Amino acid sequence: MNIKLFKLIDEEDIKNKVKELAEKISSDYSDKELILIGILKGAFVFLSDLIRNLTIPCLCDFIKVSSYGKGTESSGIVKILSDISIDIKDKDILLVEDIVDTGLTLKYLIDHLSLKKPKSIKICALLDKKERHKIEIPIDYLGFTIPNKFVVGYGIDYDEKFRYLPYIGYIELEKS
Ligand code: 5GP
Fold this sequence. Notes:
176 residues, alpha/beta, Rossmann fold, globular, binds guanosine-5'-monophosphate
């Protein structure tokens, strides 16, 4: 199988968008106790750039969910591999996601985190495949709407590869 890689969003555009999102978040949460929760592994690069562009204090934690493995199609079944470790009761939570596809992961995580009684939960996603939604979850802070391509780079993988790319690309698999 040959993997062909194409560029979708370049470094500069990501940088500008992350700055823009961080400014909006900093202003909206200026009088709140913000906790960012990154969804691993895909959101680790996005979260680390986002947090360094915020101008307000905040806490940060991670939740790890099962990934696509070697495929490019979601099973729709979400499994928590590692939960958050800080207490979020009465706190304002911003869930940081790399890509919203069907929306099922976010729905599952919102239900899961709601049991811990935070004051609020909002969503920040870098990418949204709008046409693929099976469930409508409001995305409070969105980077880019993208077409239905399998994207990689900027922390996002295919079979653990391509996370190191500084830009967002997409891949096509060709039988050799
Ligand atoms: P959803 O539950 O919304 O269908 O899927 C969300 C998760 O699927 C994302 O967090 C991400 O891990 C994975 N995902 C969705 N689309 C892509 C994609 O194009 N590339 C990669 N690598 N993962 C994706």
